[in-house]
Amino acid sequence: MKTLLALLTLGLIATTTMAADKPDTRLFEMRVYYAKPGKLDALNARFRDHTLSLFTKHGMTNLGYFVPVDNKDNKLVYFLAFPDRAAHDASWKAFSADPDWKAAAMASEKDGKLIDHIENAFLTATEYSALAQAKNYGGVFELRTYTTEAGRLPDLNARFRDHTLKLFEKHGMTNVCYWNLADAEKGAKNTYVAGNTLIYLLSHKSIEAAKASFDAFRADPIWVAAKEASEKKAGGSLTIAQPNGVKSEALIPTDYSPVK
Question: Above 90 in pLDDT, residue 135?
Fold first, then answer.
């Protein structure tokens, strides 16, 4: 049963090779936990030994759990999926009230709180995110966040759908999943701009391979032409000025992450 559950869970992570025949209409949640100094190991232990199984018990789909390669802020980044916002709210309410969760939380915090603060964002899959078969990616993941100029998110999504994804694959990158912020951001604590944000995951063989892939991608004449054409059509750059227009963070999956 556990093997079957793992395979089903892995199958829910999206790989993006072409537009999905049936759009993924689920609500996704990205959560970022900032552990207190010296408490990240205890936080990971609580997730490994208790939280994931309790999430599943209450109808949440565990997708992936990651820590940054350069983890100066003691972060844990993870992704969940729900049928819709009502299911999200009901699942979290039931989880929070579960006596097993309360006991696990109390035991793990006998020497003090584990979490300093939490950020979260509600996400929807883009039209070009297609469901993949169960898969272990290997290597490292890269979480990339693009913030567009006002009104230019459709142009950015079109460029990814029509050009960028295929060029990423051409240059050795693996597309994992692509999201936009959900329209309803009620209750979320994040720094993103609804309607102006693309968040996605890539997989690379290594940090060095990621750099080489992006160097080759940026120099590709097809990419240069696609970028120029998309910006001409939109009337300027699709993303806001750096350093905030494009952000990148290298991640490694935790030992308990369903996707690796």
Answer: no
Specify the pTM.
0.88
Q: What is the pLDDT of residue 23?
A: 80
Phi (first) and psi of residue 23, to 5 degrees: -55, 145
Distance CA(259)–CA(80), nearest Å, equals 12
Cα dihedral angle (94, 97, 98, 100), rounded to 10 degrees?
150
For residue 206, what are the CA distances in angstroms to 138, 142, 250? 9, 10, 10
| Helix spans in the chain (H) | 2-11, 40-46, 52-57, 85-97, 99-108, 153-159, 165-170, 207-219, 221-234
- For the chain, the average pLDDT equals 89
Instruction: Assign a CATH topology to domain 25-123.
Output: Alpha-Beta Plaits (3.30.70)
CATH topology of domain 138-252: Alpha-Beta Plaits (3.30.70)
Residues of the chain with CATH 3.30.70.100: 25-123, 138-252
Single out the residue of 197, 188, 212, 32 nearest to residue 117, CA to CA: 32
Instruction: Give the pair of three-digit tokens for residue 238.
Output: 């699709």
pLDDT value at 162 more than 60 = yes
